[in-house]
Design brief:
Elements: H1 5-8, E1 16-17, E2 23-27, H2 53-65, E3 70-74, H3 84-93, E4 97-102, H4 115-121, E5 125-129, H5 135-142, H6 146-159, E6 171-175, H7 186-201, E7 207-210, H8 217-225, H9 229-238, E8 253-256, E9 261-263, H10 266-271, E10 280-281, E11 294-295, H11 302-305
Parallel strand pairs: 2-3, 2-8, 3-4, 4-5, 5-6, 6-7
Antiparallel strand pairs: 1-11, 8-9, 9-10
Length: about 325
């Protein structure tokens, strides 16, 4: 795989500083039951990195020592971590908003068939990957059979009350482009998703979130292999908008890897760029206020400020 960090280190991206920390995003491991072409984590079935019980305890200790109100759990397929359910239980007992970044097909993996019921019972907010409402596009990105399995998962969640009126169970879908282009306008695409998924499968969802493909890991390496890396970076830089800078996710979020090391965002984690450019562990931050601190930036940050902007919560505009 081609390394992209050497191509991203030199940057003129505007300097950033932190606002109040509200979200702790933790990557509990890189193992996944899928291996998607656009994956910026390079996750897959052969990965073995997994957060252990000691690091889970560090996460909970940090939550108790901080003012964070949201725990955002990602992977890989985060549900494959053996401590996933106890982590959810502990976070909900602390009255945190819990987000599970779910690929939907995990519900059909042996031993995980009851996950939808567990998530609903704990009122976990689900952000589900579904890169298109067309089967052929999903198959191209994520493999044969994924589209049908994803729709079955969405129907199960709907049956449990997700995206249904007055339940408060939030089910968001995540879209990303198939190649080196910016995502379309989020509002218009959401309308298309609602119409097409209802017509094709009777499926409902709460929100659509669009994410720009980051020129790192598997996707970045593919760009280099196809001779498209420079052109894609030119696209991102040319579409940069200063008005997006105030709302980028790194202002109010820190990202924690499976070993407990801390980064300014999930993308920096995948590049090995530590918090404010330093390698620090969550245990070192228990008594530290991060407000106003510097944020490590590189050229890939233009992916978050291009066009309508993008973050783990969707478009910024």
């Amino acid at each position: 795989m081609h390394a992209t960090l050497p191509l991203l280190k030199q940057t003129d991206f505007p300097p950033l500083r932190r606002h109040k920390l509200t979200t702790l995003q933790i990557n509990v491991g890189y193992r996944c039951n899928q291996a998607c072409l656009h994956c910026h984590v390079n996750a897959g079935p052969s990965r073995r990195e997994s957060m252990n019980a000691e690091t889970v305890a560090d996460v909970l200790a940090f939550i108790d020592a901080s003012d964070v109100d949201t725990l955002d759990i990602t992977g890989g397929a985060p549900e494959l971590n053996p401590h996933f359910r106890e982590l959810v239980d502990a976070a909900r007992a602390r009255n945190l908003r819990v987000i599970d970044r779910c690929n939907l097909t995990i519900f059909e993996e042996p031993g995980h068939e009851d996950l939808p019921e567990f998530l609903a019972a704990n009122r976990v907010e689900i952000v589900a990957s579904l890169p298109c409402y067309l089967e052929e596009n999903v198959t191209a990105q994520r493999g044969e059979g994924v589209y049908a399995s994803s729709l079955r998962g969405l129907r199960r969640l709907n049956d449990l009350g997700y995206a249904q009126p007055d339940t408060g169970l939030v089910l968001s879908l995540m879209y990303n482009p198939a190649g080196p282009s910016l995502p379309p306008a989020q509002c218009a695409l959401e309308a298309d998703y609602r119409r097409e998924l209802h017509a094709r499968a009777g499926v409902k969802f709460s929100n659509l979130l669009v994410l720009t493909n980051m020129p790192i890991q598997r996707f970045g390496s593919t760009l280099i292999s196809h001779g498209q890396f420079h052109d894609y970076m030119t696209l991102l830089r040319g579409a940069h908008r200063d008005e997006n800078l105030d709302n980028v996710m790194c202002r109010s979020l820190i990202s924690v890897d499976w070993q407990g090391y801390v980064y300014d965002c999930d993308f920096n984690q995948m590049l090995g760029i530590g918090l404010a450019g330093q390698r620090r562990h969550l245990r070192d931050l228990m008594q530290e206020r991060l407000d106003g601190g510097p944020i490590a930036v590189a050229d890939h940050c233009y992916g978050c400020t291009a066009g309508q902007g993008a973050s783990c919560s969707g478009a910024l505009k």
